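Sharing a chain and its predicted structure for anyone who wants a worked example. Both blocks are below, sequence first, tokens second.
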Amino acid sequence: MRKSYCFLAAFILATLFSFSANAQSVTITGNVKDKSSKENVPAVSVVVKGSSSGTYTNSNGNFSIRVAKLPVTLVITEVNHESSEVIVNDASDLKIELTLKTTIGQDIVIAASRAPQRVLEAPVTIERFGSASIRNMAAPSYYEALTNLKGVDMHTASLTFRTVTTRGFVSSGNTRLNQLVDGMDNQAPGLNFSVSSIVGLTEMDVDNIELLSGASSALYGSGGINGTLLINSKNPFKFQGLSFNVKQGIMHTDGKQRSPAPYYNWSFRYAKAINNKFAFKFSVEMAKGSDWQADDYRNKAQTGILSTVIGGNRNSDPNFNGINIYGDETSRSMDGFAFYVQDQIRRGVLAASGGLVDLVSLQNSYYGFLGNPVYPTPTQISGFSTFFGFPAGLQAVLQSPAIAAQTAQMFPFYNGFKNNYFKGASVSRTGYNEKDLVDYNSLNVKMNAGFHWKITDKIEASINTYIGTGTTVYTGANRYSLKGFKIGQHKLEVKAKNWMVRGYTTQENSGDSYIGDAVGAYLNEVARPSSVWFPTYIGTFSEVRRAMGLGALPNASNISLHNQLRDILDNATVNPFTGGAIAGSTRFIPGTAQFNAASNAIKTTPINKPGGSKFLDKSSLWASEFQLNVSDAGHFSDKVEIIVGGGWKQWSLKSQGTIFADTAGTINVSETGGYLQLKKKLFKDALTLTGALRYDVQSNFDGRWTPRVAAVIKVAKENFLRLSYQTAYRFPSNQNQYINLALGGGAGGFLIGSLPEFQTLYKLNSTRPGYKASSVFNTRGTGYRNGTIADSNRLVQAIFKPLTPETVGSYEIGYRGVLGKKF
């Protein structure tokens, strides 16, 4: 009990002492403005000289700092202004004005060498813009403003999905450029593209962006072949207060695609520091608009995922395949289909008759005997066989109802093929425009939140979360509608001036995302299966053409007949040429209840199920990283700067078989790497040499060494020449390795991974060799006139080489300097 009283007394005394100390302290408040513009300057550092006590101005340029007693000297610094020292003798509000720096080229960058340095002295090409530039840009989003950086190409797949490329071929979902948001790899674990345009920082929370153009794997690892983009957020200690930004506009003002529609981009941020010991921030951004519609309706010739634009439209080409029309990928060669049906029936009858009846041989003999394409009835065939003295047993087989039915079924295909009615043409199903299949109501919501703790004046810990969700459209091997797509990134980090350690995770959820192409194709299959549509179309075409030859029907051009048959197969339940009922229903019309019900069923059925197009992806990434600048340890600082670092990543691929070959369970892919950088100044800082070396190894691949060497030569005051040799590599992406994606619909087939086990799974290295797509296309073009299924001599077998990392080497010479303090 006595101990408890002693503890209570000590606590009361400590509290009273604290109150007494606070009562004697002084609070200094003030405001910082730009001397020329008189605008408030946010994020200005205010530090008590000779101590570690300090704060930052808020968004209105105001600050407040507590000191033990007066007078004190405050050191006022901000990157774009000249530093200033102010002696404070009393606690009245201070009015401080800073002078804008007149010397350009003083920006500090970190990305070039993973350590702070002036952009003038960076050893490689680097571009940067800060929060002031972002605040003043005339663009719907800060990501779009990246196009203003030198050497940047931007691929726009939709309103909210953009892909950055430097020094390479622009593409959607570039996997050759690293994107790091607050040091975290921003690549979606399953879909493999960087998502900082839809799941990154909110615009109000972006502090600065740095872009390394070209090879940059030596410091940043796999993927930096085209470059590395670093997007860094605002520290809540430095950037405090409430901020909001409202952007609104009007889209589609020309009215060509759709009626004018509003565009909204609203963002909000609040940050607060508590006793300069703790700080938190919260920001949210919402972008909403009516996306642009993909409306390229040109015709294309397609083999697998390879295609070439050609002439023609739906009215002139029976095999029309529109670029942004889906479902018309389902196509058949009329000759090939006719030959296939003929061959299948022929083989079936041969087997059923014990090898006695070869329908094709009989048809050929009958043609030769009669000399014209008249339909052979069982009685006629019987008479024909009696005339030539066929055995009585064979005559009985020929007159059986079963053989008669087979003969009647085969004859239109046999006859059309033999008489070249089809003229080598192919025919495709009628497709649906993309605008009827995907959701163009783009919505993107981002949320960032963080809590920071200054453990000491030099060590800061933080936990941050980044969440994004929305709806957009993405172009890959197919057109993907990312609907309700969600990604969360969560990071724990501790850092000081010369070291840092962080761990983070990326959690992906594909939501209700689906393949747009597949929806169009499967709508056709639900209404009228291709197993009905193509036989009815091709058989009717042959019979009508035969009737025209006999004078039973007026003659018409092939394209006219094609167009009539398409209209019948899409919109009729009875074939007017034959009088027979057509199985299935008529084509679904967009906007009807029937269309919507069928479309929703397809969109909610997984890809790996019959008639499905939905992804079920919940892949994740777990990663850790550290870095240490050891220059201050042991007397290195005046000799050479040494930076060491390393990291570990593990991707867990979990798509339930809808993207990856993971039906047996989660696939784990690990990667480990480390790097070393040495920097030395020589000849009174006239020459700076930098060398870096990195080693990385991944689960399915041997390790890779990537060196970088650079020299920066000071040719005059504020004028520098740089020379460098850089290397980069890219381990094959998770999709490159493990994808097992059913393309869905008419194109059919799978996109498969390039690891050796896929060749075994699909028997490509044994009984079912694969062929080059170009040779398949050429083979199909030869037709079936030789009596076999195409000219197989034109097929070129594909040679599957071992999958290896992609590498690149880059030599660079550059100059950066300041001329006349203005250029």
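Comments welcome. The CA atoms of residues 501 and 626 lie 4 Å apart.
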